[in-house]
Amino acid sequence: MPEDNNIFLIGPMGAGNTTMGRQLARELNMPFYDSDRFIEERTGANIPLIFDLEGEDGFRKREQAAIDQLTSMHNIVLATGGGAVLREVNRKHLSERGTAFYLYTDLKFLLERTRKDKNRPLLHGDEDPEVVLNRLMEQRDPLYRQTADYVIDTGKSSIRGVIKAIIDCLDNNSTERNK
Ligand code: S3P
Fold first, then answer.
1. What pLDDT digit, counting tens, does each position of 152-178 carry?
2. CA of 121 to the centre of ligand 1 (A)
3. Is the full-model pTM beyond 0.90?
4. Could you say which of 62, 89, 117, 171 is the most buried, measured as most Cβ atoms within 10 Å of its Cβ?
């Protein structure tokens, strides 16, 4: 278990990292950060524009710098973007500098929750979003699991239920540790 009291939420687009993170932070009275919003504030550009101008690789560089900076803080709740686990250095920071929760979410819920969204460039190419999300989950699910201390299934509970499950894990009362 890491020494730090940081809480990191990882998981795919539509898992609810931001929503759950904000609520969890409120409940625990901790500062809340979101890596995507942090990047947008720093660059003065939104995520789709960063992808347009710099490509995915440019975005990943910014994301790596943001994750390094944010995970170096103390006693925060951090919600990360779906691709935050792609780079090994990010996975290392997320697993070593706090307690990481993987918000596992079934593909059908991910599709439902991202259907109307316009801010996720990876879902707005020529390919069907279902095919993209499925492929991303196949690639990333093992990375989320290897990074997380705990896996929480968000499909089974309400937002409140997920928050409670996270707090229970933190109190060490329930749910087996993932590693
Ligand atoms: C991405 C997820 C997005 C954002 C960017 C790339 C991904 O974050 O970081 O569009 O690679 O899955 P959310 O998971 O908050 O949508």
1. 999 878 999 999 999 999 997 444 555
2. 8
3. yes
4. 62
